């Protein structure tokens, strides 16, 4: 039998070395504004904004969240607006006006507005795009506290909203719409007459009382000696410039002792008005000559 040789004491005391510890796990660095990767991503966002004709400096000042938002967030907003039928050039103008939309969550902030316009107003889908293009504030107005109360009030006046009048939804009921209704009633119009006027000319409810309705009503009643019945028939009077059209044309007529219905005085071009004024002057001269013969 072979003799088993035991290791010497010195050999037994030598213990194997443990393996070296694994290197610590280091999380990948989050790109910062100073890393090349972050700089590249940021530049991509700036180029994207420029491609939409959005002013990057203005957008970043008004919505700093754009700096940290991924490009995919901005793209999802454009995709959402495209799905509403908006052309890309209009999307750029809207986003430049309201940069907060650039980081909006489509499912939380944009599609609910689309649903409201389609199903509660309701607007046909082809009217959605022109409505938003005409009044981008629709996209940033809260539904429960602004759009829905305005819709209820406008319906009470007899409105059936379309792509032209849907902009009235962004006007506050108490501070704006009701104030203008009360102003018109204060002129002497009945409640029913006011309803007829604003439905016939919805833009009347978009004008300022101090800067538009008041001065024009004062001029019509005090200087033109107009009657409310004519103003009721032609509420579009308030849409014409007081200084550039109403006053000059009225003064030219008054100079020769002439009058015209509001619609004929204001709706025609300058050349047509001049021709009409000349015809009226000749007609007046002919009548005077016949009286003296």
Automatic annotation (TrEMBL):
SMART domains: Mterf. Keywords: Transcription, Transcription regulation, Transcription termination, Transit peptide. One of its GO terms (biological process) is DNA-templated transcription termination. Belongs to the mTERF family. It comes from Turnera subulata. Residues 1-32 are annotated as: Disordered. One of its GO terms (molecular function) is nucleic acid binding. This is Uncharacterized protein. Residues 16-26 have a biased composition (Pro residues). Residues 1-10 have a biased composition (Polar residues). InterPro entries: MTERF, MTERF_sf.
